[in-house]
Write a structure and sequence with these properties.
Elements: E1 9-13, H1 22-40, E2 47-51, H2 55-64, E3 74-75, E4 88-91, H3 102-107, E5 111-115, H4 126-135, E6 138-140, H5 144-147, H6 158-169, H7 176-183, H8 186-195, H9 199-220
Parallel strand pairs: 1-2, 1-5, 2-3, 4-5, 4-6
C-alpha cells in the first residue's frame, strides 16, 4: 500500500462485537477477507485499516484466516479514534447527509469509516447514533437514491460499500452511477424494475436479466 499512487484512508470499524453473535462475527471475518482481496487486486489500493481486532473476532480471524496477520493492511486492536482524530466521515445509510461527487472526494483528505456490523438490521441507526453521540464526527451516506434504482432494501454488505469507496477515492472511476452499476449485483439493481412492469412483460425481462447475471458470473469466473 505504501507504494500505491492512492494514499486515501478507509477504515473498517470492528468495534461492534457486542452487537453480533458468533455466526455474524464469522461472517464479518470473511467480509474483511473480501475487502483485503479487493484492495490487494486494485490498481491503486488505499490505506486500509481494520481496527478493534481483538477478543472473539481476533480468535475467529486466527482460525478462519490463519495468515491474516501478514495481510497488507493496517491491523490494530486499538479503536480508530486512537489513530485518527480529524477529517473523519462515518459512512452510514441512516445519515441525512449525502456524499458529494467523486471528484470532490478525491480532492479531499477525508478519512472514511465503514461500520463493521453484520446484524440483519436488528440495530437500525446504531452506527449513526455512535457517530453523533459517541464519536462526535461527521457522517454521510452513499448517494444511491440519486443514481440507481434498487430493490426494497438499500442495505449493502461491507465489501460492497468498501469496493464502492475504493473506486470513488482512487480515481479509477469519476461517476457514482458507473461505480454503483459496476459494484452492486445486477439482481439488486433490476428487481424493482421488474416489479413495476405489467405481468405480461415480467417473464421476458426476468429471462434477460438471468442471462445477464449468468454472463457476468462466467466473466468473473
Amino acid at each position: 500500500m505504501s507504494e500505491s499512487k492512492c494514499q486515501a484512508n478507509i477504515i473498517i470499524d470492528c468495534d461492534y462485537q457486542n452487537y453480533m453473535n458468533e455466526d455474524e462475527l464469522k461472517k464479518l471475518c470473511n467480509q474483511l477477507n473480501r475487502c483485503y482481496s479487493l484492495n490487494r487486486h486494485s490498481d491503486a489500493p488505499v490505506n486500509l485499516y481494520f481496527t478493534s481486532i481483538k477478543g472473539k473476532l481476533q480468535n475467529f480471524m486466527k482460525s478462519l484466516h490463519p495468515g491474516y496477520a501478514r495481510w497488507d493492511v493496517f491491523l490494530s486492536e486499538k479503536h480508530w479514534s486512537e489513530i485518527f482524530s480529524s477529517k473523519i466521515i462515518y459512512l452510514t445509510g441512516d445519515s441525512s447527509n449525502i456524499l458529494p461527487d467523486c471528484k470532490e472526494i478525491q480532492d479531499s483528505n477525508d478519512i472514511f469509516v465503514i461500520g463493521g456490523l453484520i446484524d440483519h438490521n436488528r440495530h437500525k441507526g446504531l452506527s449513526l447514533k455512535r457517530a453523533i453521540e459517541e464519536y462526535k464526527v461527521q457522517h454521510s451516506r452513499l448517494p444511491l437514491d440519486l443514481h440507481i434504482k434498487l430493490t426494497q432494501s438499500r442495505i449493502l454488505s461491507i465489501p460492497h460499500v468498501f469496493e464502492i469507496m475504493l473506486n470513488a477515492v482512487n480515481k479509477s472511476m469519476d461517476d457514482w452511477s458507473m461505480i454503483f452499476k459496476k459494484v452492486i449485483p445486477i439482481r439488486k439493481q433490476q428487481l424493482q424494475i421488474i416489479t413495476d412492469l405489467e405481468d405480461s412483460n415480467k417473464n421476458e425481462i426476468s429471462m434477460e436479466l438471468k442471462e445477464l447475471t449468468e454472463a457476468r458470473l462466467v466473466t468473473l469466473g
